[in-house]
Amino acid sequence: MALKYMNGTNQPAIFTHMTFTTIFVTLAIVISNCLILLVISWTKAFKNVNKWFLLSSTISDLLLGLFVTPFSIFNSLYNSWVFANDIFCCIEAYVAAALLIAGLYSLAWLQVDHYVAIRKPDRYKYVMSPTRSACWIGFVWLVSISFCMPPLFSLRRARYYREAFICIIEAKQQRAYFMTAGLLVAGPAISALFYTSFYMFTKAYKKQLKFYNQVFVDRASRPLNYRINLINSTIFIVCWLPWCLLRVHHAVVSRDKRASPEFHFYFLWLGISTAFIKFIVYVCKSKEFRDGLRESFNVHADNCDCPRCVPHHNIACADACNESTKFVQV
């Protein structure tokens, strides 16, 4: 009697290099973004970064690794769509699209935040107040979700992208809508990234930077965070560009001239990998972030044991010990 495997066929699960890639990327996304959330929550490493925008970017990437990429692992094992309900494919495609748009907009707002902080430092606290930042983040997620709302109600506008083992929005039957909505949604974010990033290469920025470093000593890490976000934004665009160009090439050439499935797989997963590459950038470029990582682990390991605060440089623990010492002396 023939055995029925997970995908309802006689095809057994086969572990390939593509399966390894999907597992590696998924684990990297989840672990790296959980560490970033830990640093944001337990340390002051991002004291010169707008945490509203950073949280939005981190959460969108984490959700991508929790609710989108894990299902590709099973699809790659059986080299087919293994879930019985096709509606699930539609939902996965729309969730992925919404999270990617939210991530792009969060990067753009982070760059705008740094731009305002350095160019107009006297007005920064008013222009980018916590309340306004929260409102902008709400707008970002509203736009991301609304982009997928019209086709979502039909539940028939997604397809299984078998070359990359993931579901994507089917734009063929609604090409006019997606071209228009895509320009209206992605256009402002990309324009904001280019405009605020170009300022870093002007003479006005260099002049303003000298004044900024002399007057706002407590915000000395802001220019570095500005450059780090420029690197993350550039990586995001560069990594997604090959897949976007491949999709255009796929649509305009004849079937016999199309690229091999391996190109589709690796180009798409190169774009998805931007969800954890920013962690590598922070580790390599930001000493504050590296100190924040050490501090986060020391807080949980030391449990504020005073004799061990100094050798571990645990700031939070040392502060707590100092407070308790003052209390005893009084």
Question: SSE layout and pairings?
Answer:
Blueprint: H1 17-42, H2 51-67, H3 69-78, H4 86-119, H5 124-127, H6 130-154, E1 158-161, E2 166-169, H7 175-198, H8 203-215, H9 222-252, H10 261-272, H11 274-285, H12 287-302, H13 309-312, H14 315-329
Antiparallel strand pairs: 1-2
Structure, explained:
The protein is mainly alpha-helical. It has 2 domains: 17-285, Up-down Bundle (Rhopdopsin 7-helix transmembrane proteins), CATH 1.20.1070.10; 286-330, no CATH class. Helix content is 74%, strand content 2%. It has 14 helices and 2 strands; from the N terminus they run ααααααββαααααααα. It has helices at residues 17-42, 51-67, 69-78, 86-119, 124-127, 130-154, 175-198, 203-215, 222-252, 261-272, 274-285, 287-302, 309-312, 315-329, and strands at 158-161, 166-169. It has a two-stranded antiparallel sheet with strand order 1-2. α4 runs antiparallel to α6 (130-154) and α9 (222-252) runs antiparallel to α11 (274-285). The longest helix is centred in the first third of the chain and has 34 residues, at 86-119. The N and C termini lie far apart (82 Å). Mean pLDDT is 84; it is low at 1-6, 304-316 and 323-330.
